[in-house]
């Protein structure tokens, strides 16, 4: 904490401006306690939240000249949410000590929760108010894919935006859940369960556990603890069947390998679907991500189509009227476009 100016005039000797973030509730910085104890008068800036003003039991500060006169007679402390008010500026300009605590990481999440609550409450947004878990499902999927695209493109601005959109979905579902008559829960319940899970699944961090030495052993330990916590009866319990097919197959292969199932039993080439599963299994065993591999190949195919169409236009042909022989003529090879069908 720092004072305003190198020295403080005696007129405000012992006086302080305590800046609090009332999003955190009725909390004052620890450094402010001695100032509050030694104060002759404590005032609450009108900009403070009502609950904070009530907890302080303090009156609003008098007009500025009177405030400074009182500060000359005895130590005065003004508690405020920021340094924007005239009373705060007057005291600081006269040399009062500024006392504030740095906000903890995540404090902006409190504003996000508050805004979501406002939108969903009476007098808020009619569209937000009528949404349900079911109606929001499609948005969760869309926002997740948009985030994946931003990550794939390493677009920092898009990543910030799309992470926020995914966070909105979490806040929205938690707010809807809080209204359930039979089994309500809120965002604090969600966060508390997450914290409990993270702590219990990382005993090498939060307790004494020497079984984890690297990322791979941690992954195995995580699955072991998860199976024990959830009392799963099968090695594939808990695999989400609603995920994309390649991701589902890859997850099942991972679980099968972790369970010790021999490689020759993983897969069956008796029909086209099984052949696709075998391809996913091979990619997974080779250390790749089948979903990413398939996506990369699909995007490469997309680019080849666009390249062929561009070549056709350059030659004066209409891409919408190309024959099979035309497509063969304009179709680029992988090395011509600099594309690699499958990362390896």
From TrEMBL:
Highest taxon above the source species: Bacteria
Pfam families: MazG
Listed SUPFAM superfamilies: all-alpha NTP pyrophosphatases
The keyword Transit peptide is assigned to this record: no
Basic and acidic residues composition-biased segments: 321-336
UniProt entry keywords in alphabetical sequence: Hydrolase
Record field: transmembrane: none
Chain positions covered by the region annotation Disordered: 309-344
Signal peptide limits: none
GO biological process: one example: UTP catabolic process
NCBIfam families registered for this protein in UniProt: mazG
Name recorded for this polypeptide: XTP/dITP diphosphohydrolase
Species of the source: Actinopolyspora righensis
């Amino acid at each position: 904490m720092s004072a305003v100016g190198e020295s403080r005039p005696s007129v405000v000797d012992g006086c302080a401006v305590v800046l609090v973030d009332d999003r955190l509730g009725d909390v004052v910085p620890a450094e402010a306690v001695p100032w509050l104890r030694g104060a002759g008068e404590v005032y609450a800036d009108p900009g403070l939240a009502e609950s904070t003003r009530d907890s302080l039991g303090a009156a609003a500060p008098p007009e500025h000249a009177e405030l400074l006169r009182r500060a000359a007679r005895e130590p005065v402390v003004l508690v405020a949410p920021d340094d924007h008010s005239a009373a705060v500026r007057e005291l600081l300009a006269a040399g009062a000590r500024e006392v504030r605590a740095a906000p903890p990481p995540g404090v902006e999440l409190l504003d996000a929760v508050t805004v979501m609550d406002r939108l969903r409450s009476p007098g808020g947004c009619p569209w937000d108010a009528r949404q349900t878990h079911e109606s929001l499902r499609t948005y969760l999927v869309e926002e997740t894919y948009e985030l994946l695209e931003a990550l794939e493109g390493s677009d920092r601005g898009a990543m910030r935006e799309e992470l926020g959109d995914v966070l909105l979905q979490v806040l929205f579902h938690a707010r809807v859940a809080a209204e359930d008559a039979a089994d309500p829960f809120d965002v604090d319940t969600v966060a508390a369960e997450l914290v409990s899970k993270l702590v219990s699944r990382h005993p090498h961090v939060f307790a004494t556990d020497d079984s984890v030495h690297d990322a791979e052993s941690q992954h195995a330990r995580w699955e072991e603890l998860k199976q024990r916590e959830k009392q799963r009866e099968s090695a594939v319990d808990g695999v989400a069947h609603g995920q994309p097919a390649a991701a589902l197959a890859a997850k099942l292969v991972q679980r099968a390998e972790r369970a010790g199932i021999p490689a020759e039993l993983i897969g069956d080439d008796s029909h086209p679907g099984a052949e696709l599963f075998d391809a996913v299994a091979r990619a997974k065993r080779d250390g790749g991500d089948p979903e990413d591999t398939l996506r990369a190949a699909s995007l490469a195919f997309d680019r080849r189509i666009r390249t062929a169409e561009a070549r056709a236009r350059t030659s004066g042909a209409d891409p919408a009227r190309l024959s099979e022989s035309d497509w063969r003529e304009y179709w680029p090879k992988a090395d011509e476009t600099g594309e690699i069908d499958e990362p390896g």
